């Protein structure tokens, strides 16, 4: 059985699965007002698919201004309006939809269109495992269980057909009861198979469900009820019990899905926070230090600001210590999509086996230890550790927490109350995570690299502005009137051409200023500007603006092999090969062997000096010989190349 939890765009996800149906759609929901989903059901019914819908007879969803369920009936669909429960219980315990007898959609989402911007809730898509061709697994064929629950729901409200029992059926049930007492399981199986063709009509589906564990006595008790009591009351009670059991399972699945989503968000926040500490930590420390220095200067002029200066200093010291601790842990490694999928799958399987709530009391200490290790490995993308814990849990023989008896309706109802409470608690914890600033930030991101590039530039700009403020404060102390700066501004106002050219080529402009006036800057002059605070982030975010041949010659860039590799397809390699500021060496030459042009040779003097005479002979013997010019060949000046000398007297060479 495969379970997929969906938290966003839920109506669209349901619509996609309804549209893919080819045989049957069965729906039981507490609210149904989504017109788009209703139109899909009508379309499918018109195409000949079996479409059955059960909803409460609720005035909020019925009437002239609501969905026209008669339209669905008129084109072949079945609509069942369930009367209100006499005991005050919800008419439908939880929503579900069965598609093509193989998959189930269930969860907290009603089939109503949520208001724009609201939380969609949660749905689970549960698909029968195809492992044995029948969809059966440890939990049985859940789609068939839900179809049975749908039939029971109708019968519980007097809307489904019932067949009366026959003498033959009663006699065979008595035989099965005796065989269960004798624990003759093979004989039980043979007798049960004879009842299977009429099981639905005779209301025997709960018996088949109980016989999956024949030794627990539930099947025998069911037969006693069937034979000795009122059959109608017995069927109703067991149909109610089966539906409650499905509700328990669905709530348990939802809690598991929320816990998995919570663990995944914690994993993402952990990775994001560590990367921020590593990539932005130094800039943040510098920013807080500058802010503290600025507050001290301001406090010197105004003692009333002393408390703000002390707070700024404390914030700087606290962050520096916290960042130092955080950077002791490296960021989690990036995983390929296939490896990330395996990590999540193994975590899901393992957490369900070793979660302290899933094992009996005797195993809880051991399970808690493994679960803590599992969470740590999952947060750090440690696939090898998760594999090892998964293997250990599979062979650990944990005792499962005891389940609730199938026929104990009171216990089931109590369990539902407890599970709904747990579901609300886990949902609140998950929402608290989603409300954190870190999650809201990373949830918007599609490219972490671009985000951190821009954040670096933002910090650099902010730091530059504070530095400028501190410099102005110092200059103002030396020159209160700042007359020289004022005179220079007057000159530049008179000559805007000099202003733009001079700023573009000479000023240490911030990223914010570059983005603010993109059409006014001289981007050729900017590409040659040695005063800019060059960084890979600045180059990447304005990549389409630079003059790349000029940029290739700029010695002020933070040249590294990684920077060259990142923009390998943009550099002018003729110009780059002549740039002496590159970190020239054998490693750089080898990394880009096919890219370099001949001017690169002049930057390799230490390597040339290492060659010995025999090295030169061996290399030159292997070097290609230029072709001899044709008799009619001329150079660019029109001179006959065949008549030009080599500059050497051949007689001196031999």
Give the helix/strand layout.
Blueprint: E1 2-6, H1 10-19, E2 24-28, H2 35-46, E3 50-56, H3 69-74, E4 78-82, E5 95-99, E6 103-107, E7 123-127, H4 142-156, H5 167-182, H6 185-195, H7 199-202, H8 205-210, H9 218-228, H10 231-301, H11 306-326, H12 337-354, H13 364-379, H14 383-394, H15 409-434, H16 437-444, H17 448-478, H18 483-494, H19 496-506, H20 511-516, H21 523-528, H22 536-541, H23 548-553, H24 561-566, H25 573-576, H26 586-591, H27 605-610, H28 613-622, H29 650-653
Parallel strand pairs: 2-3, 3-4
Antiparallel strand pairs: 1-7, 2-5, 5-6, 6-7
Helix pairs in contact: 1-2, 4-10, 5-6, 5-9, 9-10, 10-11, 10-15, 10-17, 12-13, 12-14, 13-14
Q: Which regions are unreliable across 5 or more consecutive residues at pLDDT < 50? A: 131-138, 230-235, 402-406, 646-654
Radius of gyration: 38 Å
Structural class given helices, strands, pairing?
Answer: mainly alpha
Assign an overall shape.
elongated
The termini sit apart by 87 Å
Largest sheet: 7 strands, mixed
Tell me the fraction of residues in β-strands, as a range. 5-15%
How many individual β-strands? 7
* Strand order of the biggest β-sheet: 1-7-6-5-2-3-4
Number of helices: 29
Helicity range: 55-70%
């Amino acid at each position: 059985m495969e379970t997929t939890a969906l938290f966003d765009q839920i109506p669209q996800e349901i619509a996609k699965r309804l549209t893919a149906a080819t045989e049957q759609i069965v729906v039981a929901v507490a609210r149904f007002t989504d017109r788009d989903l209703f139109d899909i059901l009508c379309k499918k019914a018109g195409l000949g698919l079996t479409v059955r819908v059960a909803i409460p007879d609720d005035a909020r969803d019925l009437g002239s201004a609501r969905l026209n369920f008669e339209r669905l009936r008129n084109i072949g669909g079945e609509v069942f309006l369930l009367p209100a429960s006499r005991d005050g219980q919800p008419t439908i315990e939880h929503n579900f939809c069965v598609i093509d007898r193989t998959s189930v959609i269930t969860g907290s989402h009603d089939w109503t269109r949520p208001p724009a911007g609201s939380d969609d809730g949660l749905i689970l898509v549960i698909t029968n495992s195809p492992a044995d061709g029948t969809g059966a697994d440890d939990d049985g064929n859940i789609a068939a269980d839900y179809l049975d629950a749908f039939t029971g729901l109708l019968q519980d409200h007097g809307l489904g057909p019932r067949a009366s029992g026959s003498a033959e059926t009663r006699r065979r049930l008595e035989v099965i009861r005796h065989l269960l007492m004798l624990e003759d399981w093979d004989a039980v199986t043979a007798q049960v198979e004879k009842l299977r063709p009429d099981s639905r009509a005779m209301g025997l589906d709960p018996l088949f469900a109980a016989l999956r564990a024949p030794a627990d006595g539930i099947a025998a008790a069911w037969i006693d009820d069937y034979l000795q009591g009122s059959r109608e009351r017995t069927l109703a009670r067991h149909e109610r019990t089966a539906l409650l059991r499905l509700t328990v399972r669905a709530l348990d699945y939802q809690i598991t899905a929320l816990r998995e989503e919570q663990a995944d968000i914690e994993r993402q926040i952990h990775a994001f926070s560590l990367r921020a500490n590593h990539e932005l930590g130094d800039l943040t420390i510098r920013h807080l230090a500058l802010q503290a220095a600025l507050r001290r200067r301001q406090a010197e002029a105004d003692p009333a600001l002393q408390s703000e200066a002390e707070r700024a200093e404390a914030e700087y010291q606290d962050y520096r210590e916290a960042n130092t601790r955080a950077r002791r842990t490296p960021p989690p490694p990036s995983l390929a999509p296939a490896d990330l999928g395996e990590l999540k799958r193994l975590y899901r399987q393992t957490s369900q086996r070793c979660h302290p709530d899933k094992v009996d009391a005797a195993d809880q200490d051991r399970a808690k230890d493994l679960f803590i290790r599992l969470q740590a490995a999952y947060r750090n993308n440690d696939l090898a550790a998760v594999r090892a814990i998964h293997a250990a849990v599979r062979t650990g023989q944990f005792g499962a927490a005891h389940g609730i008896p199938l026929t104990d309706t009171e216990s089931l109802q109590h369990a539902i109350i407890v599970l709904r409470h747990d579901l609300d608690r886990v949902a609140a914890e998950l929402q608290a995570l989603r409300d954190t600033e870190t999650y809201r930030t990373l949830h918007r991101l599609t490219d972490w690299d671009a985000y951190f590039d821009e954040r670096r530039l933002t910090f650099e700009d902010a730091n530059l502005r504070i530095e400028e403020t501190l410099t102005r404060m110092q200059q103002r102390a030396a020159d209160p009137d700042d007359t020289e700066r004022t005179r220079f501004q007057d000159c530049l106002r008179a000559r805007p051409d000099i202003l733009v050219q001079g700023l573009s080529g000479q000023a240490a402009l911030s990223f914010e200023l570059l983005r603010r006036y993109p059409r006014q800057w001289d981007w050729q002059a900017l590409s040659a500007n040695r005063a800019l605070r060059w960084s890979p982030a600045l180059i990447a975010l304005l990549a389409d603006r630079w003059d790349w041949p000029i940029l290739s010659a700029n010695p002020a860039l933070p040249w590294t092999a990684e920077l060259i590799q990142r923009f390998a397809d943009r550099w002018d390699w003729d110009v780059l090969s002549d740039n002496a500021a590159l970190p020239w060496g054998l490693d750089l030459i080898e990394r880009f062997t096919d890219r370099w042009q001949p001017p690169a040779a002049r930057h390799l003097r230490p390597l040339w000096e290492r060659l010995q005479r025999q090295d030169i002979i061996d290399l030159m013997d292997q070097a290609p010989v230029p072709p001899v010019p044709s008799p009619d060949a001329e150079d660019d000046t029109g001179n006959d190349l065949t008549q030009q000398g080599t500059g050497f007297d051949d007689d001196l060479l031999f």
